[in-house]
């Protein structure tokens, strides 16, 4: 026997159909919004990597050019002491004549205090190895000066110095300046200091050399040639004064003084900072005034610091003409 049940089917009216459509639309919209919120956003467009910051400008290379002037050269020590105190470390040093002595000691690593101690202990007898001028073409051989320098630099060759060093001398055969960058330090200093008629000329490698001041009393251009972008030039030359005596040696030295002044007027225009210690009354052979000369060097460098600071602010490309 089969049981048959009659079921009543629900009646669908127009109003219920509208409500269903509305509910479906709401649910559909909500689902779409939910899916949109959960969807992974498209990747951003690739961005350019940030450029690294520009490196700070490189400080200019500083060259220290120390001029000739015999015993007045003690003033170079005072100049170096002020630079040391101010934290200004030259990148290279070049010297002519008396300046070559201080340049060599400074390049070897002697501090300002050590340079002053060496200056105060230095006696004229250390370099005064007298000879007969008729046979050696000079009053001093200069060998004692070479030994003195080599002792203080502990035998270092020019190329082995802690600071790049240049020593200027003059080739007697052709009158050209020669910048020694290698070899025996004392011999090069001796050649640079060989004032004709006072020191015997120096033979190096088959050529004869005399005082570098004949071509550059202050070796500014030589410092440029070694790579200096800022040059501190120290001028310790003597002014020409009326001669009380006219013996041949005094006339010769006066001639060198006049010639040096003429050269310096051109050379020093190419320096960025010119330091002129007040050495009035200090003669080229006045070893007794060494402390006064050192103090004059300190005072002159102190006065030149504003000019030096301005020069160092400029980039290497802004070299003074």
Automatic annotation (TrEMBL):
One of its GO terms (molecular function) is hydrolase activity. One of its GO terms (biological process) is lipid catabolic process. A motif (GXSXG) lies at residues 95-99. The lineage of its organism: Bacteria, Pseudomonadati, Pseudomonadota, Betaproteobacteria, Burkholderiales. Transmembrane segments: none annotated. The keyword Hydrolase applies. Residues 40-60 have a biased composition (Pro residues). Residues 37-61 are annotated as: Disordered. It comes from the Bacteria. Keywords: Hydrolase, Lipid degradation, Lipid metabolism. A motif (DGA/G) lies at residues 211-213. Gene3D superfamilies: Cytosolic phospholipase A2 catalytic domain. Residues 64-224 form the PNPLA domain. The active site is at 97 (nucleophile), 211 (proton acceptor). This is Putative NTE family protein. Pfam families: Patatin.
């Amino acid at each position: 026997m089969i049981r048959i049940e009659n079921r009543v089917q629900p009646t669908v009216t127009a109003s219920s159909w509208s409500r269903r459509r509305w509910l479906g639309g709401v649910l559909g919209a909500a689902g779409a919004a939910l899916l949109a919120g959960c969807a992974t956003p498209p990747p951003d467009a690739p961005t350019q990597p940030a450029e690294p910051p520009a490196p700070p400008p490189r400080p200019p290379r500083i060259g220290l050019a120390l001029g000739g002037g015999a015993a007045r050269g003690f003033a170079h020590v005072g100049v170096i002491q002020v630079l040391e105190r101010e934290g200004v470390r030259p990148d290279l040093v070049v010297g002519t004549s008396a300046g070559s002595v201080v340049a060599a000691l400074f390049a070897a690593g002697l501090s300002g205090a050590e340079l002053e101690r060496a200056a105060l202990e230095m006696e004229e007898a250390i370099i005064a190895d007298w000879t007969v001028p008729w046979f050696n073409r000079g009053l001093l051989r200069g060998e004692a000066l070479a030994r003195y320098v080599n002792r203080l630099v502990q035998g270092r060759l020019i190329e082995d110095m802690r600071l790049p060093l240049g020593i200027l001398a003059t080739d007697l055969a052709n009158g050209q300046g020669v910048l020694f960058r290698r070899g025996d330090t004392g011999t090069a200093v001796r050649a640079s200091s060989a004032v004709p008629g006072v020191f015997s000329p120096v033979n190096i490698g088959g050529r004869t050399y005399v005082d570098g001041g004949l071509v550059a009393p202050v070796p500014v251009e030589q410092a440029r040639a070694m790579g200096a972008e800022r040059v501190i030039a120290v001028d310790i030359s003597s002014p020409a004064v009326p001669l009380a005596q006219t013996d041949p040696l005094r006339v010769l030295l006066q001639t060198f003084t006049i010639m040096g002044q003429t050269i310096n007027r051109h050379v020093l225009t190419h320096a960025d900072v010119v330091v002129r210690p007040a050495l009035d009354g200090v003669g080229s052979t006045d070893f007794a005034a060494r402390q006064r000369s050192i103090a004059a060097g300190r005072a002159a460098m102190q006065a030149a610091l504003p000019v030096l600071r301005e020069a160092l602010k400029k980039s290497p490309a802004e070299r003074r003409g």
